[in-house]
TrEMBL record:
SUPFAM superfamilies: Macro domain-like, Zn-dependent exopeptidases. GO terms for cellular component: cytoplasm. Belongs to the peptidase M17 family. Keywords: Aminopeptidase, Hydrolase, Manganese, Protease. It comes from Flavobacterium granuli. Residues 166-469 form the Cytosol aminopeptidase domain. Pfam families: Peptidase_M17. CDD domains: Peptidase_M17. This is Leucyl aminopeptidase. InterPro entries: Leucine_aapep/pepB, Macro_dom-like, Peptidase_M17_C. GO terms for molecular function: manganese ion binding; metalloaminopeptidase activity. GO terms for biological process: proteolysis. The keyword Hydrolase applies.
Amino acid sequence: MKTKQIAHLENYSGTILIPVFETNLKSIIPIKFEDVEISSKVFYGKKDTHYLAEHKGNTYIFIGLGKEIDYKSIKTIFRRIAAKEVESFGKNVVLFIPEQFNPELVEATISGLLLGTYDLGHYKIKEKHPFLGDHFELEILSNNDYSITINKAIKIARAQLETLGLVDLPPNKVTPKYLANWAVDKGAKYGFEVEVLGLEACQIQGLGAFLAVGKASQNEPQFIIMKYEPKESANNLKHVGFVGKGITFDTGGLNIKTSGMLQMKSDMAGGAAVFGAIQLIADLQLPIKLTAIVPCAENSVDNKSFLPSDVISSYSGNTIEIIDTDAEGRLILADGLSYLIKNFDPEYIIDIATLTGSSMGTFGDECAALFTNNEAVSKKIQETGDAIGERLWPLPLWDAYKQDIESDIADVKNYSGKPLAGAISAAKFLEYFTQNHSAWAHLDIAGVAFGDDEFAKSKHATAYGVHLLTKFIEQL
């Protein structure tokens, strides 16, 4: 999407988008824009409503914002307009920006409009959304110059669109190799280094926990390492590490899932969030050093499957007793975390994963579960999430839960065996492999990465985490 600013609508012909703050149903003062008036009896700016009017050949779309607005609401409102009013858009579209808008709301508006071009029908014959046309240019009617904000908003949406596609595409398309190729291509385009460890390289490195998960699949596992530094490198850059779960499909292994398998193409949503975040961070050229690891594997079933009661090795040198092969995400994250800490030693570490149904049972689809022993990190990432509508809430990492991962035969076990405190015991397992890192956080996004909303008939990706991780880094 390209944009340009205009100062007036003289001789303009096309569609005009007009955000409107709520008045009230009984207001005697109509909603007015230019020489178009709308009676409050038919439209008064109520949130999640909009009204179309035709006047002198132009289409006016009045968009209700409600009385109080926030980033997420604005983004959703304008995504809805872009998605649901496609037939109203032609070659010329103008967005009017009210004086009450600040840069954050402008960012949310533009990102929402571009996200509204997303269509889940990847394999359908369809027409391209007008906003994606080669010659389309969204005109911005405002007295203020928002060009920097708008450019950033477009980059945010593009990264989120990439993530939506990665998660929603089917598992016979998005294999570990597909994700490795994606990383290499985007690294070349946006300017970050990519190293991919294939099967033999992972064996040489001793990534035993990671390899155990992927060994039953015909699709070779790929351990993807991405490194970013700004083109204009500065001294004393803070170093952040990301680890994302990249299970491209999860059958549960020999502890095969008895329900919910249809959605298990989404089990790489944490990894996809890391992919989208590093694209965005590199695109924005943020002044940060970033190392991101996404271990990618398919948890499948055949005669090579790892077994319940197996004892496997890990990159850290610790042994792991396998209680449940469906607790596989924490195994690949354990090796990812260990590899990151040993070889790169970042100041801050965040891992992100669709890890447990327990977190979903606790929070539903309202927020992610946050685990960290660093109060400053906890506060900062929660504030960041609240600001953009990607919310988190902390759960404890008390030592009382250590018993859930204690094993008689190995250093640690991968599952408590109890239908209780599942998200917490999983986080305690990961903590075991962080070497007591002082600024590590674990985000369990099982309930927020893939779900239902108005933009498709079936469950689909949300791109949760892309903006959250990026904005967290911006504020370090």
